[in-house]
Specification:
heterodimer, A: mainly beta, 6-stranded mixed β-sheet, B: mainly beta, 7-stranded mixed β-sheet, 4-stranded antiparallel β-sheet, globular
């Protein structure tokens, strides 16, 4: 099976930088995704990492270390609208559904305060 | 505009009744998925389909059934055999099953 861990909740100040960590254990790693989900809404795609290193996309960046089973999502210049849950998801080609299955962590609820 | 639609957004049913949730996409995606989300839990895969007329069970398929008669449509039936059906149900689709998954707006099902 797979195990994906992320902090349950985080709080940060508007304008600041916040880093949300995700650790995973999987046998057939084939990519890690970050999604943003506002309360009661659908998750929306933020980033995808399959190779080690940093992927930058505007105010959001995502980092991956496959050897450590570790990823983080970095949010810069925080805005109130960034208050949401952030979901880490891993694709494991050795899972029952192979490349078609994503296994999601429980999500990190980020609260941005003035 | 391309996208995924789910209807209705809120659904109430009495215990013991079957209920079907709709999911339609016009993104020309091959793969479609059904997830369930409970408070404090990650998304869990119920069923997925790679092509028309083919689908496979995910991690929590018991008490659910699906069909894939058209590429655009992947309805989910929550049967009376599902012991705890109250949840937020999300449908998703992707191209070839390799790329990012795009999610519909979700249906919140409450069984009374």
């Amino acid at each position: 099976g797979q195990n994906i861990d992320q902090p349950t909740e985080m709080t940060a100040t508007e304008g600041a930088i916040v880093q949300i960590n995700c650790t995973y254990q999987t046998s057939g790693f084939n990519g890690l995704f970050w999604y943003q989900q506002h309360a009661g809404e659908a998750p929306t795609f933020l980033s995808y990492n399959v190779l080690d290193g940093l992927e930058e996309k505007g105010r959001f960046s995502s980092f991956l270390s496959r050897s450590k089973g570790y990823s983080y999502l970095l949010l810069k210049e925080l805005q109130m609208k960034d208050s949401a849950s952030y979901l880490c998801a891993v694709r494991d080609v050795e899972s029952g559904a192979g490349s078609y299955q994503l296994t999601f962590g429980k999500g990190t609820k980020l609260s941005v305060i003035p | 505009d391309g996208g995924i639609t789910q209807s209705p957004k809120y659904l109430f049913r009495k215990e013991g009744q079957n209920v079907t949730l709709s999911c339609e996409q016009n993104l020309n995606h091959d793969a479609m998925y059904w997830y369930r989300q409970d408070p404090g839990q990650g998304l869990r895969l119920i069923y997925y389909s790679q092509i028309v007329n083919d689908f496979q069970k995910g991690d929590i398929a018991e008490g659910y059934s699906v069909s894939r008669e058209k590429k655009e449509s992947f309805p989910l039936t929550v049967t009376s055999a599902q012991k705890n059906p109250t949840a937020f149900y999300l449908c998703a689709s992707s191209m070839y099953g390799e790329d990012e998954q795009f999610f519909g707006p979700g249906t919140r099902l409450t069984v009374l």
